[in-house]
Amino acid sequence: MKKKIIYYVAILAIAMVSCSKDFTERESLTSVDVAKTWNTADEVRATTSTLYSGLPWAGFTSRAMDDIGDVMAGNAHSYEGNGDYRAFVVFSQSATTALVGYCWTSFYKVGGWAAAYLKAFEMKKTLGGDPAIIDPAIAECRFMIGVTYFYIARIFGDAPIIDDPGKVALEGNYNIPKYLKADVMRYAMEQMALAEEGLPDSDVPGRATKSAARAYLAKMYLYNKDYANAAAKAQEVMNSGKYDLVPSDQYDDMFNSSAMNNNIESIFAIQYQLTQNPWGAGCQLQCDRGPSNLNTSESSMWELFRPSLDFMKAWEPGDIRRPATVMEHGWSHPSWKPTNADPLYNAFMADGYKYDTIQSTDHGGVLNATRSNIAKYVVGPGSAYGGEPVIGMNTGQNFMMLRYADVLLIYAEAILAGNSSTSDAGALDAFNKVRTRAGLAAKSSITIDDIIHERRMEFAFEGDYWYDIQRQGFAKAKQIIEAQNRGAVGSPLYVTFSENYMYLPIPASEILQDPELGNPAVPYYSK
Predict the structure, then answer these.
(1) Beta strand 266-270 with 399-403: parallel, antiparallel or unpaired?
(2) What is the pTM of this model?
C-alpha cells in the first residue's frame, strides 16, 4: 500500500503505534483501547509529551528550517557542492527537492499526531475520562496544530487541512483538496484560540500555557495585519510577568548551553534529549553549523550552513549579539580545548579554541567561502574537550521556536500599525528593550525597516527571517532578495526573484498520490 505522507500519524491505543508504520496500516482505535488507558494525569501527559520531542519535528528542524528560514532569506550560505541545500541559495528548489518533502512530512506528522490524539482524548471523555486531566491535553494538541498550520500557511500557502486523520484512514478517501492559504491561516488561529482557552496559566518548564498560546496569536494577528489584536495579545503576554529577556551577559548562553534550556525567555521550544537513537531525538543543528576545525572524537561538525556575506554586512558596531551569533576571525572560546592527531593543531588550540582565517587550515585555521561560521546552537567539542556532553551529531540543546524578544518586537510593530513611523512610548519601550540588551543605542522613533532589521539580527539562524521578508509582499521581497550578495568571497552572486518563489511547491510525490492537490485551491470555510 502506498505511503500517504500527509496523513502519516502515530496513535496510541494502549501504547503508541510504531512511528514507522504507514498511517493507512495502523490499528484502528476502539473504545475498548481507549478505556484501558489515559486514566491518570501521568498517562495523558506522557502522550502529549511526544509532541514536544524532536522526533516528529526532525524533518523540519534538521536542515529544512535553515534552508527556508535563513538560506532562502539570504542570511545563510551553502556552497555549490551541496545540491539540495544550494538550491535554496539560487531559488532552484522544486516539487522534487528532497528538503521540500522532508519539511512537508514533518508538519503533517506533528499536526497528524496532535489531531489523532485530540480525537482519542475526546473519545475518552465520552467514556467517562476525567475532564480535569483530558481537557488540558486536548488544548495542548490544539496548540501544536495551531503552530504547525501557521508554518504550513507561511511555507506552502494553499495546502490541505487534515482535522481528523483517523476518519480519513477509516473511510479510505485520500482525495483531499488543498485549501486557500487564508483558510489555512484561519484554521491555525482558531486552533490556537481554543488552545488559549483550555491551557493552564502555568505548568512545568517547557509545557505550553495560556501565555504561550497568546504569544503565537499575537504573531498570527500580526501576519494578518490585524494590528489591534496583535498588540492586545502581545500586551497580555508582556503583562503576565511569566517571561523576560535574559540578561545581556547570558545572551550567548541561550544558544550554547543546554543548562539554559527552558529559560525565562523561552516561550515554546522543542525538547531535545542527548541521545543517538532514535534519530531526531537529539538536536542536530551543531553538526550542520559548526566549523570543521572543531571536529573531535565526540562531536561532528561540517559547516553545511554559514553566514552569508550580505548578513555579515548588516551588523552595527558594538552589537554584543555578534559573537553569540557568528564566529569570525578573532572569535575564541577559551574553555573549549579541542585536540586531534596533529601536534601543530594541538599547540594552536592549547589555550582554548580560536577561530582564525590566517592560520593554516591544516593546523587549525578556517578559510571557508564566507570567512565565518554560525555560532548559535553550537555547544562545543564535547565534555572531554572542555564543553558539555555531545554524541556525534547530537546535543541536548532545546531549540527555541518562540522567544519573548519576539513578543516585544511584535508589540512594537503592532503599534506602528503600518504607519511610516512611530514615537509611541510603549512601542519604543518594547523595541528598545531588545536593542539595548544588544548594547546598542535606543531609538526615539522607529520605522518598519528598523523593526525588520532588528528582527533579522535578533533571530538570525533561528529560521525566521524568510517569513519577515515574505510577509512584506512580493515587491518588497524582490527588492530585498535582489540586493543581496548571495555568493562567496571573490565570487559575488545575485539572483532574480520571481513571485512563484514566495511559497514552496507541494511535493510531487504528494500530488502523485493525491491528484486533488494539483488542482486550484478551494475554500475550507463556507463563510
Answers:
(1) antiparallel
(2) 0.94
